[in-house]
Amino acid sequence: MSKRIFACSLAVIGMATSLGMALADSAPQHVQSGTYKVEPGHTQVVFSLLHFGFTNYSGLFSGASGSLTLDSAHPAASKLTISVPVSSVQTTSDRLTEELKGADWLDAGKYPTATFVSTQVTPDGKGGASITGNFTLHGVTRPLTLQAHYVGSGVNPMDKAYTVGFQATGVIKRSEFGVKTYVPMVGDDVTLTLAGAFEKQN
To answer: Phi and psi for 110 in degrees, rounded to 5?
Structure first.
């Protein structure tokens, strides 16, 4: 092995060791109570629906904002608010992305924001919870329940902010929100998955 390859190998091993030490704590009982805000750079809302019966097609929204109030001693008292700009929608097709922003679909010009505001949190005792709330899309507000589970928490080694992460999933019928284009050829049931990173404020 040459000296250069050996040096590179040591650097990779050192980096892996450092990252390993920086991994988030996966024990939900260790989460710090407090008020958090969405860290938009690492928060995504992914949507998935059946496309003409061939594939489960996915896209995502970014640029989320919002807050999370965590009470580790009384998890049922926790609260979640999330907003995403509809115009942030992205898919693997530039043409489809622009279509989704238009009046036949999400009409981002008229309805620029999608929001979820929790009304009830029911912990499962295992680091997860059912989060029921009001979801607003395309100018329509309807109840939505998200099944959430804790991913990890700790100090982010990049920005030094104490961060907690959750994954949450729920299903809506887009026709109930007035988004009916191509139903049922393009699926009515839409799975929403929130990969949420939240930074502690106090």
So the answer is: -90, -35
User: What CA–CA distance (Å, rounded) separates 49 from 59?
Assistant: 9
138 touches 113 (CB < 8 A): no
Q: Whole-prediction pTM value?
A: 0.86
pLDDT band at 125 (very low <50, low <70, confident <90, very high): confident
Report if residue 10 sits inside a domain. Answer: no
Type and span of the H or E element at 163: strand 162-173
Do residues 146 and 170 touch, judged by C-beta distance below 8 A? yes
CATH number for the domain spanning 99: value is 2.40.128.110
Q: For residue 33, what are its two tokens?
A: 């109570």
Assess if residue 177 is contained within a domain: yes
Instruction: Give Cβ neighbours of residue 147 (< 8 Å, ≥ 6 apart).
Output: 128, 130, 131, 168, 169, 170
| Domain region containing 102 | 25-200
Residue 150, domain member (yes or no): yes
User: How far is the C-alpha of 141 from the C-alpha of 121, rounded, in Å?
Assistant: 19
> In whole angstroms, what separates CA 124 from the centre of its chain?
20
